[in-house]
Amino acid sequence: MTEPLAEKDKAKKDGPEWDVERADDLASVAAGLSRSPPDRDALAHARARVEGSESPELLSALVLMLVGDDRAPASEGYLRALSALEAIAEDDPALGGVLMAYLYPHASRAFRHDVCDAIELWMDSFRDSILARRLRDLPADDPDFAVRLGRWAASVERPAEEA
User: Averaged in consecutive runs of 10 residues, what is the pLDDT profile of the chain (163 residues)?
Assistant: First the structure.
C-alpha cells in the first residue's frame, strides 16, 4: 500500500534531503557522517533515526558502514569510525555517544581494545541527560554489555562537578 501523495510531500519538506526509500540511503548517511566536518543532512538523518528509536540492527549497520569493508582486527576501519563519531560527539554528544555505544561491541569482537578504551573514556567525559536516557533504552542481548550500558548511563548523568 502506498502512502498518500500529501504525506510523501510533507515528509520531503519536514525531513532532511535524503530519499529514505532508496536502498543506498544508509550508505549515503554513513558517507556523510564520515566527512570532515560531518555533513549536516547526514547528521540530521542519523539524529532522526536515533530519536525515532530505529531498530538496533539498522543503527548497528550504520556504524559498520562507517567501519567499512575491512573489519580485520588490525584494520584502520574501527579507528576511522571512531574518529568520525568523535567529531559528531563534539557537536552532538547524544548522537555521537549512542553511535559509539553501537560501535563498542563490534570493536570488542574484533579485539580493538584501543577503540573500546577510547569509547570508555568518551563515556566517562560526557555529561548529557539525553544521552543517559538513550543509553538506558538501548537493547543489549549480552548481559555484560547491558551492565556496561547502565554504568555508562549513570556516569553520563552525573553532574559535571562530580566528574
Answer: 38 42 69 89 88 74 82 79 93 93 92 95 94 91 94 90 59
User: For residue 23, which phi and psi values (nearest 5 degrees)?
Assistant: -65, -30
What pTM, to 2 d.p., does this model score? Answer: 0.79
Question: Whose grid coordinates read 548517511?
Answer: 29
Q: Work out the number of other CB atoms within 10 angstroms of the CB of residue 112.
A: 25
Helix (H) or strand (E) holding 141: none
Whole-number Å distance between alpha carbons of 38 and 156: 24
Q: What is the DSSP letter of 161?
A: G
Which residue has 548523568 as its cell numbers? Answer: 157
Name the nearest CA neighbour of 114 among 75, 149, 68, 79: 79
Distance CA 46, CA 62 (A): 9
